[in-house]
Design a protein that fits this description.
By secondary structure, this protein is mainly α. The protein has nine helices and no strands. α1 crosses α2 and α6 crosses α8.
Length: 181
């Protein structure tokens, strides 16, 4: 990552902690980063593109996509879902500084949704090669919705149990169906 890009991202994160996203302008970011507007636009289309890339990088980092991808490939589907859920819970705790409004929340949800579908679709293609790719995509979408729903439920609940205990109690049904309970 270039120094200018890092300055822009760091300045954006700093500003996000001080005021709502809707109030942040490219001028605010460039002033904080001590760069000119052309430098900003060399790296990002606009502040929405910046938000999307910052969230995407933070999510990928929390999901462990940037490190040891070969280790992740060897995880079972159950372990992969468990890891993704725990990572999503950890990521949710970092979201407050980015999402003060509906527009930002929508963009963040789209980024999360897209990454989860990609990760799960790739995992299924690797671990279930005999299934048609269109079915992989449908299953990845279904599992994405399940994970996101469970993440929201966990975050909105009393959180009396750990994320691991929460997901472990429902994973057998998610993997093997309700009849397995």
């Amino acid at each position: 990552m270039t120094r200018s890009r890092t300055q822009i991202i760091d300045s954006f994160i700093l500003l996000s902690g001080k005021k709502p996203f809707a109030s942040i302008t490219v001028k605010d970011i460039t002033k904080e980063a001590q760069i000119n507007r052309a430098t900003f636009y060399n790296h990002f289309l606009d502040k929405y593109d910046l938000l999307e890339q910052v969230v995407s990088e933070a999510l990928r980092s929390n999901l462990g996509c940037n490190s040891h991808p070969d280790i992740k490939q060897h995880l079972s589907t159950e372990d992969t879902l468990r890891e993704l859920f725990i990572s999503l819970i950890r990521f949710e705790k970092t979201l407050d500084s980015y999402s003060d409004g509906f527009e930002e929340s929508e963009m963040i949800d789209l980024v999360i949704h897209s990454h989860l579908i990609d990760i799960l679709s790739s995992h299924l293609a690797l671990h279930k090669p005999g299934i048609d790719s269109s079915v992989h995509l449908k299953l990845a979408r279904m599992l994405t919705h399940a994970l996101l729903g469970m993440t929201r439920d966990y975050c909105e609940s009393s959180q009396a149990e750990s994320p691991g205990d929460y997901i472990d109690s429902v994973l057998p049904a998610l993997i093997n169906g309700l009849d397995s309970l």
